[in-house]
Amino acid sequence: MNLSAAVVGEVVWVLGIVGWCIIRYPFERRAKRVPVVSNRRSGSEVLGLVSALGGLAIVPGFYVATGIPEAADYVPRWWVILIGGILFWVAMWVFRRTHKQLGRNWSITLEIRQQHELICAGPYSLVRHPMYTSFLLMGLSQAFLLPNWVAGMAGLIGFAVLFFLRVDKEERMMLEVFGPRYRAYMAKTKRIIPYLY
């Protein structure tokens, strides 16, 4: 069977999304058992989460299922698909390590849980927000895997909206809870790209 690069890219993307769901599910179930002490959910945060879901799952999923918008397609290259596959694998590795390191502290929204701890080990020793790093890598991999200007770029746009609507609020919340410890941690680490940003 002779598979085209476009089909392989779509299959890798689908497998990556399935992997994302498999990784997140047990942590989401466990997190529901830990009481929330403070919830900072806001309209802008919901907008960011919807944008990320739309850009990283709904728009590309619609494209993979229907081929629409076909007018935005371009010719894929095997080397581009390979880069996309590697990026998606790295994204899922960071995503899983981040969840594992957070453990009972993990939350999909801006929440402080009972006995919340400041995590500075594992991927958190390199960046303050490795979960966003994994989303950035997912968005980049999507741009490589899906040879369509709309579906491919939707992930980066969705990630950017989530990141810029939420990261400042998240850091303010952590400063309120952990004070000087978090400020010292901020001084030693970058936000999402080690040594750069």
- What percent of the residues sit in helical stretches (DSSP H or I)? 55-70%
Q: Which secondary-structure class do the elements indicate?
A: mainly alpha
CATH architecture: Up-down Bundle
Largest sheet: 2 strands, antiparallel
The total strand number stands at: 2
Number of domains: 1
Keywords for this entry:
197 residues; mainly alpha; single chain; 6 helices; elongated; Four Helix Bundle (Hemerythrin (Met), subunit A); two-stranded antiparallel ribbon
Write the layout of secondary structure elements.
Blueprint: H1 5-31, E1 36-39, H2 43-66, H3 78-102, E2 111-113, H4 130-145, H5 149-178, H6 180-188
Antiparallel strand pairs: 1-2
Helix pairs in contact: 1-3, 1-4, 2-5, 3-4, 4-5, 5-6
Structure explained in plain terms:
With 197 residues, the chain is mainly alpha-helical. It has helices at 5-31, 43-66, 78-102, 130-145, 149-178, 180-188, and strands at residues 36-39, 111-113. The protein has a single domain (5-188), classed as Up-down Bundle (Four Helix Bundle (Hemerythrin (Met), subunit A)), CATH 1.20.120.1630. It contains six helices and two strands; from the N terminus they run αβααβααα. Helix 3 (78-102) packs antiparallel against helix 4 (130-145) and helix 5 (149-178) crosses helix 6 (180-188). The protein starts with a helix and ends in a 9-residue tail after the last helix. The model has no long low-confidence stretch (mean pLDDT 94).
